[in-house]
Amino acid sequence: MSSILVIEDDAEILENIESILEIQKFETLTATDSQIGIQIAQEKTPDLIICDVTMPHLDGYSVLSQLRQHKSTATTPFIFLTGRAERADMRMGMELGADDYLTKPFTKDELLKAVVTCLQKYSRLMQHYFAENERMESLEKQLQTYQELADIHHALLKKVSQNLRHPISNINVATYMLKKSVLDQRCRSICCNLRRRMRPRTLSTQRSF
């Protein structure tokens, strides 16, 4: 269930919005004062905030500006309610980071459409964020695996160069086990190349005894 905070100093409008949202099974939080609304938003971290523009003490633009500076509400979807229909007012709200604008009076359908659209948009953004985060974690793990294998490859070559006149069957065994245990094709390829490099030297060493 999505939670929605409504900040509106007009009690009648606030009650109507709350009723519409609760009928649609949204969890609704309300505030008639902008400062209290900011406090609730930071403490409860709602999924969406609906806020009136014209309020005493602190207007809606200031509310949005403060919320965008707080980590817990920096990306929370935000809808403005306003009696103003001027383009300059709407542009100002959008520049501050608002997601939508509802001009009073609005219908039930207009309210619900704006709410659902904002929530769906935010949900898609979060899914994309988590998918990208998982992809980056996977790439980091692969990079770490390749780096570890490269270190092993370097260490084995160094040991081979230091023991050209000594049996190196133990190194052959080590590389064989490494080849079996690493699933990634690139890693297996490196191990195979290493075994091919060492095979002639092994035979040469055996003939010298």
The first-level CATH class of the largest domain is given as Alpha Beta
Low-confidence stretches: 201-209
CATH topology of the largest domain: Rossmann fold
Q: Give the overall shape.
A: elongated
Q: How many strands, which pairing sense, and closed or not: the largest β-sheet?
A: 5 strands, parallel
Q: Provide the CATH architecture of the largest domain.
A: 3-Layer(aba) Sandwich
Description:
This protein has 209 residues and is an alpha/beta fold. It folds into two domains: 3-106, Response regulator (Rossmann fold), CATH 3.40.50.2300; 138-207, no CATH class. It has helices at residues 11-23, 34-44, 60-68, 87-96, 108-162, 169-181, 185-207; strands at residues 3-7, 27-31, 48-52, 78-82, 100-103. The chain has a five-stranded parallel β-sheet, with helices on both faces. β1, α1 and β2 form a beta-alpha-beta unit. The longest helix has 55 residues, at 108-162. Residues 201-209 have low confidence and may be disordered.
